Amino acid sequence: MPGPVQSIERAAAVLELLSAASELGVTELAESLGLAKSTTHGILRTLCDVGLVDQDRRTGRYRVGRGLTELGAASVDVHQLRSLAANWLDALAVHTGEAVRLAVALDGRLVVVHHVFRPDDSRQVLEVDSTRPPHACALGKVLLANGAQLATDLSPFTRRTVVDPAALRAELATVRHRGYAVEVEERVPGEAGVARPVRGRGGRVIAAAGVTGAPERLLDRSGLPHAKLLRQLEDAVQAVTRELAAA
């Protein structure tokens, strides 16, 4: 039996991203899917030609076209995702010595679907099925940056919480460009977080996986994640992505 056609998978991923946002530019789409801008532009041009995507002539940005009047929201099988990700994220917690979480966008909320305790004797509370404010955590920033529609009122939780819409949009653009998000005491004083996207078929981001812990353990003096931590997190999410592709 022939395998999946990559170009069709990529086109479907573009449509799913556009269905979750009012408009997106070619650079935003390319960075969200991990594709070259030329490849993304070619996909968009073809989708425009067949009426599935429209381009705003004034801004150059793209949106779901009139020819696709109703694009069903892509669902995520949370149970399968948790089952395929558990071993890799459990190992990530052991290797980093920090707590690890996996989150998805569900009914407009950021929901934690897997939580691995920090491997020490400290008192911790299981957060599976709990929600988090997307603008104030690395997990949420990853999902917001990649087209997820999440309710957020930009309420402050600490003095570091990003509450200005323009500042948040700028940060989300940075997240798309570099492929990971960071939080530093934006939700909880004394806590930092680093998260990366988990991709499904066609490159669409379906979840975010992240590590949380004390800022001095996760970040260097410039406020960026330690290189080793980023590699460990990247290895884990790539492993989960491969599991999803093979499922």
CATH superfamily of the largest domain: GAF domain
Overall, the morphology is globular
The tally of structural domains comes to 2
Mean pLDDT: 90
The largest beta-sheet arranges its strands as 4-3-7-6-5
How far apart lie the N and C ends? 16 Å
Q: Roughly what fraction of the amino acids lie in strands? A: 15-25%
Report the strand count: 7
Query: How would you classify the helix and strand content by structural class?
Result: alpha+beta
What is the H/E string? HHHEEHEEHHEEEHH
Question: How much helicity do the residues have?
Answer: 40-55%
Q: Please write the CATH class name of the largest domain.
A: Alpha Beta
CA gyration radius, whole angstroms: 18 Å
In the CATH hierarchy, the architecture of the largest domain is: 2-Layer Sandwich
CATH topology name of the largest domain: Beta-Lactamase
Summarize the biggest pleated sheet. 5 strands, antiparallel
How would you describe the overall organization of this protein?
With 247 residues, this protein is an alpha+beta fold. It has 2 domains: 6-64, Winged helix-like DNA-binding domain superfamily/Winged helix DNA-binding domain (Arc Repressor Mutant, subunit A, Orthogonal Bundle); 78-246, GAF domain (Beta-Lactamase). 40% of the residues lie in helices and 17% in strands. The protein has 8 helices and 7 strands. Strands 4-3-7-6-5 form a 5-stranded antiparallel beta sheet, sandwiched between helices. A hairpin with a 5-residue loop joins strand 6 (192-199) and strand 7 (205-213). The longest helix is centred in the C-terminal third of the chain and has 20 residues, at 227-246. The chain is globular. 39% of the residues are buried.
